[in-house]
Amino acid sequence: MKNFEYCNPVQVFFGKGETDRVGEVCARLGKKVLFVYGGGSIKRNGLYARVMERLREQNLTVWEVSGIQPNPRIDKVREGVKLCKDHGIEVVLAVGGGSVLDSAKIIAAGATYSGDPWDFFIDKAPVTGRIKIVTVLTLAATGSEMNHNAVISNDETKEKLAVVDAHIYPDVSILDPENTLTVPRDQTVNGIVDMTAHVFEQYFHPTPETPLQDRLSEGILQTIIEYTPRLLSNLEDYDARATIMWCGTLALNHLIEAGVEGDWATHRIEHELSAFYDIPHGAGLAIVFPQWMQYVLDVIPHKFAQFAERVWKIPRNGRSDRELGLLGIEATKKWFSQIGAPVTLREVGIGEEHFPVMAERATKKGPLGSVKKLYKDDVLAILRMCR
Ligand code: NZQ
Ligand code: ZN
């Protein structure tokens, strides 16, 4: 196990009805609130009106940024930063999925910075502060509600980049599973693939002697695999929504990566796909992950064998680590396909014309991954395997 520091400062309110605490939570942190949300799902399901009511009860002054898109764009972040600066806003309240939460985090950081918020993504300026951040999560997927990441796209440069910085942990996140009951089937699946992929990124690593981290990861994976069919057979099953929601949070709140060297190459490759083709992040991951697994299998065959035995319950029956690992990878791909995720680029209409430039950009800052260092040609090979 590697040395580590661990501090997760996010206060979480989890459960049915917790949404109603949003007014008092915001009031505790400031009087002027910027309410950030997406393309309208919260207006259709009544959450917008409910949140507004709670904010009004506390006599808070509210500004809005709406229309945050999936694969959120820097333009909307700039709009939010301007409002914060013009009006001395104290709290950014995000109500939505990962795209809304990520935008809110960078708006809050940008509010205390004199330059352009895209500077944080191109290493032109570090994040040095922020105003307060409160989130009400409506889609179980990214873990943004309890982590220090934000991923934003720039249409002008066709880049999708991340900021990873302890300043952008939210102050408070309200996780009310009822707010996820209206998530349609395809987005539910995308979210499930994303949280599963987060566990994979931190489970398949080169660090030896991480038995507890392994068991924690396997527990999250087994729970996701057990509850996904139940949820997909009834999208309004509260307990299944609650379980999947908490899986998504624990999959990426930095707990399971404490003491291990996570890989994250697959995410970096996927971000090129969603930057170029605006496909959902979860769909891209379902396509790339099994191919990445296959590509690096021979570096850590014992880990893939453990995965097959413990997560997919495939008996050893005299098989080598490699043979068993391969069966685990096949089971993963089959499962993605069964739950309705794409597993080839062809299924989402992506051809190979941009592969070289995507591979180039993915590795611009150096090779990817911890399991096997992936250079441009490796990324190109993996993309070709995804066809
Ligand atoms: O915009 P609205 O109308 O709200 O609709 C959204 C959106 O179309 C809809 N939705 C959300 N909650 C709903 C709902 N529809 C009905 N009922 C509800 N309760 O779902 C659609 C997708 O929303 P989005 O926020 O884009 O999804 P997700 O949470 O999967 O976030 C994806 C983004 O997060 C980034 C991804 O790259 C992508 O940009 N990631 C962020 C990470 C992080 N901060 O740690 C890590 C991840 O690996 C990921 O990269
Ligand atoms: Zn992800």
Provide a concise account of the structure shown.
This protein is an alpha/beta fold. Helix content is 47%, strand content 11%.
Q: What characteristics describe this protein?
A:
about 375 residues, alpha/beta, Rossmann fold, Dehydroquinate synthase-like, alpha domain, 2 domains, six-stranded parallel beta sheet, two-stranded antiparallel sheet, binds 5,6-dihydroxy-NADP, binds zinc ion
Can you describe this structure?
The protein is of the alpha/beta class and 387 residues long. The chain has 2 domains: 170 residues, Rossmann fold (3-Layer(aba) Sandwich), CATH 3.40.50.1970; 201 residues, Up-down Bundle (Dehydroquinate synthase-like, alpha domain). 47% of the residues lie in helices and 11% in strands. The strands form 2 sheets. The protein has a 6-stranded parallel beta sheet, with helices on both faces. Helix 5 links the parallel strand 4 and strand 5. The radius of gyration is 20 Å and the shape is globular. The relative contact order is 0.11. The mean pLDDT is 98. The chain binds 5,6-dihydroxy-NADP (NZQ) and zinc ion (ZN). The site of zinc ion has 6 residues, from helix 6.
Q: Find the CATH topology of the largest domain.
A: Dehydroquinate synthase-like, alpha domain
User: What's the overall geometry?
Assistant: globular
Give me the side-by-side strand order of the main sheet. Answer: 1-8-5-4-2-3
- Write down the Rg: 20 Å
Q: End-to-end distance, in Å?
A: 37 Å
Ligand set: 5,6-dihydroxy-NADP, zinc ion
Overall number of domains: 2
Strand content: 5-15%
The total beta strand count reads 8
Order of helices and strands: EHEHHEHEHEEEEHHHHHHHHH
User: Could you list the spans in which at least 5 consecutive residues all have pLDDT below 50?
Assistant: none
CATH class of the largest domain: Mainly Alpha
Residues in helices, as a percent range: 40-55%
* Annotated CATH homologous superfamily of the largest domain: Dehydroquinate synthase-like - alpha domain
Q: Count of helices?
A: 14
Q: What does the largest sheet look like?
A: 6 strands, parallel
CATH architecture of the largest domain: Up-down Bundle
